[in-house]
Amino acid sequence: MHDNTKLVEMRVERFVRERLVPALYRRRSPLSAHQWVVPGEPVPFAEAVGHDYEPVAPGTPWGRPWGTTWFRVTGSVPDGWGGEGTRLEVVVDLGYSDTQPGFQAEATAYRPDGTVIKGLHPRNRYVPLAQAAHGGSVDLLLEASSNPDVAGGGAFTFEPTRLGDLATAGDVPLYRWRAADVAELDEAVWELHQDVDALVGLVDQLPPASSRRAAVVRALEDMVDAVDPDDVPGTAAAGRAVLRDVLAARADATAHRIVAVGHAHIDSAWLWPTRETARKCARTFSNVLALMEEDDDLVFACSSAQQYAWVRDSQPELFERIRERVREGRFVPVGGMWVESDTNMPGGEALARQFVAGKRFFAEEFGVEPLDVWLPDSFGYTAALPQIAVAAGSRWFLTQKPSWNETNRMPHHTFWWEGIDGSRIYTHFPPADTYNSTVSAEDLARAESQFAEKGRANTSLLPFGYGDGGGGPTREMLAAAARTRDLEGSPRVELGGPHEFFRDAQAEYPDPPVWSGEMYLEFHRGTYTSQARTKRGNRRSEHLLREAELWATTAAVRSGTAYPYDALEEAWHTVLLQQFHDILPGTSIAWVHREAEQRYAAVADVLEGLVAASLRELAGAGDQRIVFNATPHAASGAPALGAVSSGGAAHAAPVVVESGGDRDEIVLDNGIIRVVVDGDGLLASIVDLRADGREVLPPGARGALLQLHRDTPTQWDAWDIDEHYRRHATDLVSADVVEVVSADPARVVVRVERSFGSSRVEQLITVESGSDVIGLELDIDWHERQKLLKLAVPVDVHADRATSEIQFGHLHRPTHSNTSWDVARFETCAHRWVHVGERDWGVAVTNDSTYGHDIGRTTRDGGGTTTTVRLSLLRAPAYPDPEADQGTHRLRVGLVVGAGIPDAVREGYRINLPLREVVGGSAPEPVLRLEGSEAVVVEAVKLAEDRSGDVVVRLYEAHGGRARARLVPGFEVEQIVETDLLERPLAEPRALVDADGTLALRPFQLVTLRLRRRHP
């Protein structure tokens, strides 16, 4: 018999479109609508309810870009409505389009008393009448947000030029009010619609020649025959009866098992500002709560303490309802972090504080501790994360993003992920390759077919729900899950929570394979560089927080000064928020990044004030020059984490400036290094005088070379740097000015000015007395478009790998391209330094705000290889912020000659933590010191989170080997206790080997110590 499946599918599709969908509501009755347009920023319900509202008719334009319009919808339910088999609802159409939800108008529905009912979205437009009506009347207030629809990737035509100035966003309305109706949903028709959707989707996934596919196709055709097109409501039950047998057929015993977890991935900022995210959260969370009233099996997983905090502060009544569902175990806090942060660029302490702040919030507000790490959408995952997560008490890790890889597919879906110190965390990638599933047959089939652990395990997780303000799970998704609970030809689907999934998965597959090291995303490599001001704000904030906590702790211990708990916590929360994976990576609209820069400036003001106050207290009265050193290493005579009175380090040999002969060369020599700056302002020679005059630069090469590349990504502008950028490069050689501007014996500075395109660069080349570091300070006035600016440092070493600092350690990456994995890793992230070298000699390149690097090896004519370190300084993407990075920037880079890893670590801290000078009476003793190996580095000194006054010290092994050290407090201590990141005592110490503070650390081990103070 011939296969007429396609014809049947066409017939069914037309039946659904023209008969079934129009019959979902038996009757509709229009409600009256009135509007009030908020003149500026959003206002709370209590303010909006008291305003006068103007009538609005269907078809009326509304909603200027980024505006808020309140609608009041009133009316009554017609007599006789709401009989058996129906459900009464208020259905609202704000003027939605067919594009994806989450990128259009949205609204929050309120009762007249101000309680939130639920959100309204393009694919979730109803309000249950039982929650909207008072007797036979309807009275709703809708807070509607008219955000621009830019899901298609277009530029933002409508964006305020100043924060809060909505008047500049344009006055042309974006939407048209269509309708608000009382509607009578026919339950039988709706259920038939869900039956048909499930089976049509199944047909598309079944083998073409299978008997199961043929049976389902026949049943669908019989269903259409059974339903009278002129009386769909009256015959829907008959249609359902025809489909009953094919829906009742049980799944195969070996069918894949899927745990479907309700979810709504809401970016904390992206194509909207954070103020809009807070409203998206309220809408989505209220939707979930309303849906839980309809379906007892729904479990919803929600990450990000920051998003809960927004709802707590703006919608306290809604938050209390969330709290109740959390107690029931149905609204499940996951992730344990303040936000779903980027993990490549946040510093080690900041990434630790994501967990400290997040888990503390969940414990205080809900009495729960998430045991998973939930980061489905971050742009790659640092090799330090397993240790940090485990140290925070987490057991499991979930992500989806590596499925976006351009070149290589991750070989596992369930595995142990091992970090740089050997810590392991049980990890799962949902094989459906989505964190916004609709529980479609396509998603389910993909999960089963792609699951890499077939034959060894059989369970995967499926996060389902519309994200980014799309409203989360829907009743249609729950219906799909119910129909595929045990359906022949489909994986078995059960609703559940992430914690139950991980427990079951680990019991089923306790010994999966191991993935060691970073999970590099072969995509979105431009995120290490885009929006340089945001990145600089992050780096500066992290180090200011270190200083503020260190000196405030020292002052509290030394003189009893009150510790600024609240100010520091607020600053940390701001910085942690802005490490969200679309803010710090530079992939949000201009509004977001302008706001981030303003917040960083405010944080800097607060922290600089705290530092200054602490140093004044510590220095006391007097007229001595006192130098404070916040780095973990001694510097210029000042001890680590301490201070020194005037005098400082012994005087070193002066820097000598010489002429380089007839090529307009300038020679700088301090007895340690000899640097030649040529007439183009480039480094023509760098000689390490301590290494028998070894030359740093390869023959014929010049250092500190700026290179300008074409930067036109194939897909996502701000996100991507594509490999083809390397084929289009211009060396910026010509200099407008090359001159010595400072020739002090302690410090010589050469100024170089260049102009190119519409931009200018002033570069200061500095050599200091007694230093093996060449300082490069760049002031750039940048006005290029879709260009990438790099700084190249060629080094005459044969290095088959480069070393890059990451959180609490470093990572080795190949400089060759042996495998497809090596080829794909052509742009990488590093923190304060990278290092290339041979066995006993190398060069480190440090920075104060740069993250993107590429490091490669080339073979020279005549033999030998050159290893070139290049820093990605600036970009100019066109989307989503067409003005990204335009304007002035100041960046600092250091070339550390003859460096090993210890030198790189030391100089990385030094360039980011300059010494501070104050005038006072005397230098205070350090609050603590370390004796023993310099590989043990103190990362943070603070007072305990519980405000007990105990001192908390975070340290780690930084060189990649085993190390012993002894922590010596500079104050009376009752006990030194080793804790986890949350400052809870460990059952068994892991590094603390003696009560006197003696430590034994394995490579890159992270240690937190609590010093219980002896109080009077």
Automatic annotation (TrEMBL):
Gene Ontology molecular function: alpha-mannosidase activity; carbohydrate binding; metal ion binding
Gene Ontology terms: biological process: mannose metabolic process; oligosaccharide catabolic process
SMART domains: Alpha-mann_mid
Residue ranges of domain Glycoside hydrolase family 38 central in the record: 522-600
Sorted UniProt keywords: Glycosidase, Hydrolase, Metal-binding
Claim: Signal is one of the keywords in the record: no
Protein's UniProt keywords contain Transferase: no
Top-level taxon of origin: Bacteria
Sequence similarity: Belongs to the glycosyl hydrolase 38 family.
Name of the protein described by the UniProt record: Alpha-mannosidase
Species this protein is from: Humibacillus xanthopallidus
